[in-house]
Write a structure and sequence with these properties.
heterodimer; A: alpha/beta; Rossmann fold; 3 domains; seven-stranded mixed β-sheet; 13 helices; 15 strands; globular; B: alpha/beta; 11 helices; about 35% helix; about 15% strand; binds thiamine diphosphate; binds iron/sulfur cluster
Chain lengths: ~375, ~270
């Protein structure tokens, strides 16, 4: 049978991906340019007996998502810059309490209200460092409608596997763009469900590191009585200020991601094999960059594209290798230079790193990327 | 016969962090008795709190307990209840937690009339952080941030809850321990949002700054000024000056939120 195809908007594909992943709970607060994700899920979730709730603000939405996830529901929220700023304290809560959940951020410009209907990529550092305290982060940056679908599915998988919040960031251009999408058959994409505890309720400890780097999380209402808190805690989930517990737990929670960075990493490389100059770009900017690379090749310039799909953990190893291979890297992003700092750090001075940025609400076009490449070559 | 509280307390979690004379412990005992009276299965009971001295309560109880972030209890609890309506959900926390930073979540949980019981411990102060004024600190009172007396007007939590749409609202005090469990029991049995405001005491950060020389003085104050709502109609405005009404203040039947959403599911699946 032919696969189901449709012409879908990025935000709709996100909602469809969530349903495919087994999501049963959404809580959110309307904000442009993410609102269609909520609108779509308000239609589809109740058809499978799932729950949709529009909360009083983004903080409440994040709280409800964490609460729902603790009952075992795969849970999601969707917002944009100002909403993500509001959610930050509770994103940290989900990190330390280790509660799986997915946060969609359809990026617009900023700071503050900025340009609600214009695209931006200025939340990429916030996705890593927005909440206070040390913590791990996973952030995915799809650049097409199809990829929004698959990366939303992957976000749920990673959230459940590593027991943590996972953010999917796409700029307004990708979120509002309409493209053909081929729906994967059920079972075609891997679906990871939350690992059930192996211990009986009497001896279960929600943060027992002897059960592995990611101890299983029981669900409220499944026979397990346990405590969840945002305080530093011992294996049993109860608050502690004992230095050795605090230190071990903090490190475990960061290492559970960093030790598996290679498995979480996902990139696309285009004509990098013989590249002498590299464009490093993600999201909609990478689409312009690909076009620019093709044009430059026609002119005999050996350009290539590196497109991270997993932005955090940062693809440091591959970026470093390419920095050794190339004379220059052009980092192009719709902000005034955020990921370029990480690229520079990975390049360690092995090549020139320059930026091509734009924050006027217009997309970065291939011409300006090509011009920058020629400037550095 | 002495009441057996131990079976409801998590082994090894006592002593609690509360100061001697703190009213929060009295409320916890009342909650335990109410949960017993209702025959709650603690495996299917979520107790959700924010941050503050009062919000430490869930950690001591043997149930599914969720100690969240400052002010956010009602919002987390809404997620738990929506996702698993078959669970009994109880919120607890302080006046600051529930009506200042958490005021927005508080009123919207009331408006939705979602089936939970929120026990709000109003000790008129931010206890945990050392006695700064809260929206419930009496005007003129001393707090660590109102050295010249509190210029702020006061929130009446119960009135706020009624105005926001809670369908069971009751008030009592830490000086009326039997009424605490009676009202919480009614709240748990009520289908919809039940707010139980318990006026209690913080001798450490409120009492000592406000001429209550001992915990007993504070308890006497709570006892002397509590007027059962049923008796209030016989009193003049003058006689009610400075008093607070106790008992059931409001009760009505209105569709409950999860039941309403079950109807949405039916329509979506039709
Ligand atoms: C976002 C945030 N802001 C401030 C605080 C500091 N804080 C902790 S508890 C508290 C007040 C608690 O007062 P209340 O809720 O009335 O409870 P009590 O301690 O009196 O029982 C404050 C302001 C915090 N933990 N988080
Ligand atoms: S500071 Fe006040 S509210 Fe906190 S435990 Fe002590 S008496 Fe109770």
């Amino acid at each position: 049978m032919a696969k189901k195809v449709a012409l879908l908007q990025g935000n709709q594909a996100c909602a469809a991906g969530a349903m495919y992943a087994g999501c049963t709970f959404f809580a959110g607060y309307p904000i442009t340019p993410s609102t269609e994700v909520a609108e779509e899920l308000s239609i589809s979730l109740p058809t499978i007996g799932g729950k949709f709730i529009q909360m009083e603000d983004e903080i409440a939405a994040m709280a409800a998502v964490i609460g729902a996830s603790l009952t075992g529901a795969k849970s999601i929220t969707a917002t944009s810059g100002p909403g993500v700023s509001l959610k930050q304290e509770l994103i940290g809560y989900a990190c330390i309490a280790e509660v799986p959940c997915v946060i969609i951020n359809v990026m617009r410009g900023g700071p503050s209200t900025g340009m609600p209907t214009g695209p931006g990529q200025s939340d990429v550092m916030q996705a890593m460092w927005g909440t206070h305290g040390d913590h791990a982060a996973i952030a995915l940056v799809p650049s097409s409608v199809q990829e929004i679908f698959t990366e939303t599915v992957r976000a749920f998988n990673l959230a459940e596997k590593y027991r943590m919040p996972v953010q999917v960031l796409f700029d307004e251009i990708v979120g509002h763009m309409r493209e053909r999408i081929v729906f994967p058959e059920p079972g075609e994409l891997e679906i990871i469900n939350r690992a059930a505890p192996t211990d009986p309720p009497e001896t279960y400890k929600p943060y027992d590191a002897t059960k592995g780097q990611v101890p299983p999380l029981a669900s409220f209402g499944s026979g397990y009585k346990f405590h969840v808190t945002g305080l530093n805690k011992a294996a049993d989930g109860f608050p502690t200020t004992k230095a050795e517990y605090v230190d071990a737990e903090e490190r475990r929670q960061v290492n559970k991601v960093n030790d598996h960075a290679a498995a979480i990493e996902s990139n696309e490389e285009y004509l990098t094999e013989d590249a002498e100059v590299l464009v490093w770009a993600y999201g909609s900017t990478a689409r312009s960059a690909r076009y620019a690379v093709n044009e430059l090749r026609k002119e005999g310039i050996k350009a290539g594209l590196f497109r991270p799909i997993t932005l955090w953990p940062f693809p440091a190893k591959r970026t470093a290798e390419l920095a050794k291979q190339c004379k220059a890297i052009v980092v192009s992003e719709m902000n005034l230079g955020q990921m370029i700092h990480e690229v520079e750090r990975a390049a360690k001075g092995n090549c020139t790193v320059v930026g091509e940025f734009r924050v006027d609400g217009e997309p970065i076009n291939p011409g300006q990327i090509a011009a920058k490449v020629k400037e550095v070559m | 016969m002495a009441y057996d509280y131990d079976k409801s307390i998590r082994p090894g979690k006592l002593p609690h962090i509360w100061c001697p004379g703190c009213g929060h412990g009295i409320v916890m005992k009342g909650l335990i008795r109410a949960m017993d009276t209702c025959g709650l299965d603690r495996k299917n009971t979520a107790i959700v709190s924010g941050i503050g001295c009062a919000s430490r309560l869930p950690g001591y109880l043997d149930a599914c307990t969720l100690h969240t972030a400052h002010g956010r209890a009602a919002a987390f609890a809404t997620g738990v209840k929506m996702a698993k309506p078959e669970m009994t959900v109880i919120c607890c926390g302080g006046d600051g937690d529930g009506t200042a930073i958490g005021g927005n979540h508080f009123i919207h949980a009331c408006r939705r009339n979602i089936d939970m019981t929120y026990v709000i411990m109003n000790n008129f102060i931010y206890g945990m952080t050392g006695g700064q004024f809260s929206p419930c600190t009496p005007t003129g009172a001393k707090a660590s941030t109102t050295p010249y007396g509190n210029p702020d007007p006061v929130f009446d939590i119960s009135k706020l809850a009624i105005g926001a749409g809670a369908t069971f609202v009751a008030r009592t005090t830490a000086a009326h321990p039997r009424e605490i469990d009676k009202l919480i029991t009614m709240g748990i049995k009520h289908k919809g949002m039940a707010i139980i405001e318990v006026l209690d005491d913080c001798p450490t950060t409120y009492g000592r700054r406000n001429k209550f020389r001992s915990v007993v003085d504070m308890m006497k104050h709570l006892k002397a000024n509590a007027v059962p709502a049923v008796a209030a109609s016989k009193l003049t405005a003058e006689q009610l000056q400075g008093k607070f009404l106790t008992g059931i203040l409001f009760q009505e039947e209105r569709p409950e939120y999860c039941a309403q959403y079950a109807e949405v599911i039916k329509k979506a699946q039709a």
